[in-house]
Amino acid sequence: MSQIELRNIRKTFKVYERPEGKWALLRGAFSRTVRAVTALDGISFTINEGELVGYIGPNGAGKSTTVKVMSGILTPDGGECVISGRVPWKERKPHVARIGVVFGQRSQLWWDVPVSDSFSLLRDVYNVPPGQFQKRHDELVETLDLGGLLKTPARQLSLGQRMRCELAAALLHSPDILFLDEPTIGLDAVSKLALRAFLREENKKSGVTMLLTTHDMDDIEALCSRVMVIGRGRLLYDGGMEGLKERYAAYEGQDIDEVIAAMYEELAL
Ligand SMILES: Nc1ncnc2c1ncn2[C@@H]1O[C@H](COP(=O)(O)OP(=O)(O)O)[C@@H](O)[C@H]1O
Ligand SMILES: [Mg+2]
Question: Cα-flanking dihedrals φ and ψ of residue 77, to 5°?
């Protein structure tokens, strides 16, 4: 059986808009228009234990919403999602104990305290036995080269340094699954390479299942044999990197947005 299974997941957000124009403020006090934004329009896929899957798509495609549903943060409007035998938003506590999540644009480190204090707090939050915690902690400090950063408050770290600490924070409780939501966003080239090397090694060594969202094609090329492309809340492609490249050979060297525009056209979306 698959470790992660999504079937026809749907999620629509209500967005409240104020009318535009000269009298907008006044009218806005009385009327607001509600617009429905479909973030996920029936997403289905399965992922097996130990896979490293790339989830790629342009801004607003629905990547983060998918990650939030799988992490139990959001309840979808419809469809089914079962991860390691649990429905994330119904069995949130046991679920989050077995997953790790990294959001590139949000930190799970406490901003004003030394990184090591955040790590200790996470040990208590996840109730990791001290011996097991220490072993994992030391491993991560070594492979991510965090030795010199542990006493530094998170807010003083560079983005690359912070991202290494975020990875450790997400893996300290030895989860089976790691969701990475745009972990390379804003990183310099050297930090990107280091992060990719770490993920590749961690996936191979510990067998942690990984789903990596990105809109950087190079991330996927470097890491994933399987790629899922999402656009406008729908899955546009699920298969090997080679297959994607073959189908869209004409777009070689272009960024992912161009490839996806071609997919929209093909599918008449
Ligand atoms: N909390 C929210 N409220 C309203 N709209 C949202 C919310 N979260 C996401 N959306 C909308 O849903 C769509 C998908 O967003 P998201 O999953 O964040 O895309 P991605 O991560 O691929 O950039 C976008 O149109 C976005 O504006
Ligand atoms: Mg996002």
Answer: -80, -25
C-alpha 183/C-alpha 163 separation (Å) is 7
- Per-residue pLDDT reduced to its tens digit, 25-65: 666 666 678 899 999 999 999 999 999 999 998 889 999 99
What φ, ψ does residue 179 adopt, rounded to 5°? -100, 130
Give ranges for CATH 3.40.50.300 in the chain.
4-98+175-267
Q: Output the residue whose Cα is nearest ligand 1's atom 3.
A: 13
SS3 call for 184 = coil
CB count in 10 Å sphere of residue 256: 21
Distance CA 80, CA 6 (A): 6
Tell me if residue 260 falls in helix, strand or coil. helix
Looking at the CA of 39, name the nearest ligand.
1
Cα torsion angle, 73, 133, 164, 157, sign: positive
pLDDT digits (tens, 9 = 90+) for 107-152: 999 999 999 999 999 999 999 999 999 999 999 999 999 999 999 9
Pairwise CA distance, residues 99 & 230, whole Å:
22
- Ligand 1 atom with minimal separation from the 40 CA: 14
- The Å distance, Cα 114 to ligand 1 centre, comes to 32
Which atom number of ligand 1 is nearest to the Cα of residue 68?
17
User: Into which CATH architecture does domain 4-98+175-267 fall?
Assistant: 3-Layer(aba) Sandwich (3.40)
Nearest residue CA, atom 11 of ligand 1? Answer: 39
